[in-house]
């Protein structure tokens, strides 16, 4: 249980990509990490693109970056909503400043773009937002997983096994 003392924040909103939220959460829990879900509203159940529910334990306003070792941002259509919450963007910025692992997959890059943390970073994402990532100053690669320091990025659901492994490996080293 190499992650037994690690606490991870996962963020959620409507139409998250079901696998991109749940696969990493379950992988981290298998290794002993505590994973808390946060959304706009506490105790609200959000529904993924394919109907899988996720209930946020906390609202963004109730969580502080200092209380967590890492953050996971899923893809789907949720990132277009997630990027509109100033408190969430502040959490991402603080985790970036503190060099805590930030996991983003698929469209989740939009949240990191809105947080303004991608300039000069090496990343990947769904090819559909490649231009957005590059316009934010990132160097984009078409690879299953790209790690640049504490930022772990991935393209889409078929890349989940190497993405979740890299995230867990980096989190265990912090």
Question: Which helices and strands appear, and what pairs or packs with what?
Answer:
Elements: E1 7-11, H1 18-30, E2 34-39, E3 45-47, E4 53-55, E5 58-59, E6 70-73, H2 78-82, H3 86-97, E7 102-105, H4 109-115, E8 122-123, H5 130-135, E9 139-140, E10 145-148, E11 151-154, H6 160-172
Parallel strand pairs: 1-2, 1-6, 2-5, 6-7, 7-11, 8-9
Antiparallel strand pairs: 3-4, 10-11
Helix pairs in contact: 1-6, 3-4
Descriptive report:
With 174 residues, the protein is an alpha/beta fold. The chain is built from six helices and eleven strands. It has a seven-stranded mixed sheet, with helices on both faces. It has a two-stranded antiparallel ribbon with strand order 3-4. Strands 8-9 form a two-stranded parallel sheet. A hairpin with a 5-residue loop joins strand 3 (45-47) and strand 4. The radius of gyration is 14 Å and the shape is globular. The protein starts with 6 loop residues before the first strand and ends with a helix. The mean pLDDT is 98.
Shape: globular
The level of helicity is 25-40%
The SSE string, one letter per element, is EHEEEEEHHEHEHEEEH
Radius of gyration: 14 Å
State the assembly state of the protein chains.
single chain
Outline of the structure:
The protein is α/β, with parallel strands linked by helices.
Tags for this entry?
174 residues; alpha/beta; two-stranded antiparallel sheet; 32% helix; 22% strand
